[in-house]
Amino acid sequence: RCSVAMLDIPFSVFSALLGSLGVLCVALVGFWCHHWQGGFSLHGGAQTFNWHPLLMVTGLVVLYGAAALVYRFPSTWSGPKLPWKLLHGSLALGAFILTVLGLGAITHFHNSHGTLNMYSLHSWMGLGTVLLFSCQWAAGFGAFLLPWAPAWLRQFYKPIHVFFGSAILMLSSASCVSGINEKLFFSVKNGTTVYKLLPAEAMLANTLGILILLFAVLVVGALARPSWKRPDSDSLDSRQVL
Q1: Which residue ranges make up each domain of the chain?
Q2: What is the distance between the terminal CA atoms of the chain, rounded to a whole angstrom?
Q3: Which cofactors are named for this entry (predicted)?
């Protein structure tokens, strides 16, 4: 009982800690790309590639996780729902835009170097996650934001939307971690700092991968926690627009 009570922290405190973890993930991937991978550019070289991990971690993991937790804030549990729907949808749309830009960066890099696209498990997993994310956003927009969506459709689709929200976040984190590992095998391979000797770059990148997984697990845990869920209502206030 004591251990359970210790874990019973307010959602505001949890969200602040989770937000700090998300910022740390973005900062670490930015530092990795700047310090060891040569920084960022748009000219098709290795620096163009570096936009890919930065945008994917920022959009597909951190910003997407923030969108998933909008309805866990107690301030969203009463009053008009439309502003919170718009915030949730906008954060998810922002995550999607960053993800598309990240895909554009890696495609531009591959095409500039004559490298085939979609040849690795990381590529397949990542593209599958993005396609699933696209369907999730479009279906959520149609079911929850369009004013003529019937109540029965929203009630039917809501648990599906929640399930795939968590599934997409876990797939996103898995895609990012597999991409980090793939990049390390390509970049940490010279005779003095091979990957198996765990040089500083590998230490940082491996730590980044663990933190990304931790972020995703904490978000999914928060979504599953009963005391942090928005109370259900049998009324039709899910269509409130005022």
Answers
A1: 11-228
A2: 43
A3: heme b
pLDDT value of residue 3: 38
Query: Are the C-beta atoms of residues 61 and 219 closer than 8 Å to each other?
Result: no
Asked if residue 169 lies in contact with residue 216, where contact means CB atoms within 8 angstroms, the answer is: yes
Question: CA 208 to CA 5: how far, in whole Å?
Answer: 30
Residue (of 168, 180, 42, 153) closest to 96 by Cα position: 168
In the predicted model, residues of the chain with pLDDT beneath 70 are: 1-7, 190-192, 232-242
The amino acid at 32: W
Angle at 179 between CA 173 and CA 181, to 5 degrees: 105
Instruction: Mark 101-134 as b/e (b = at least 16 C-beta within 10 Å).
Output: bbbebbebbbeeeeeeeeeeebbebbeebbeebe
Interacting residues of 220 by C-beta distance below 8 A, sequence separation 6+: 166, 169, 170
Radius of gyration of the chain (CA): 20
Closest CA to 134 of 100, 86, 179, 175: 100
Q: With contact defined as beta carbons under 8 Å apart, do 106 and 56 qualify?
A: no
Task: Give the residue carrying structure tokens 């590639």.
Answer: 49
Tokens of 55: 């945008």
Strand, helix or coil at 174?
Answer: helix
Number of H helices, E strands in the chain: 9, 0
Is the backbone of residue 114 left (phi > 0), alpha (psi -120 to 50) or beta?
left
CATH of domain 11-228: 1.20.120.1770
Nearest-angstrom CA–CA distance, 132 and 92: 13
Element (H, E) at 182: helix 151-187
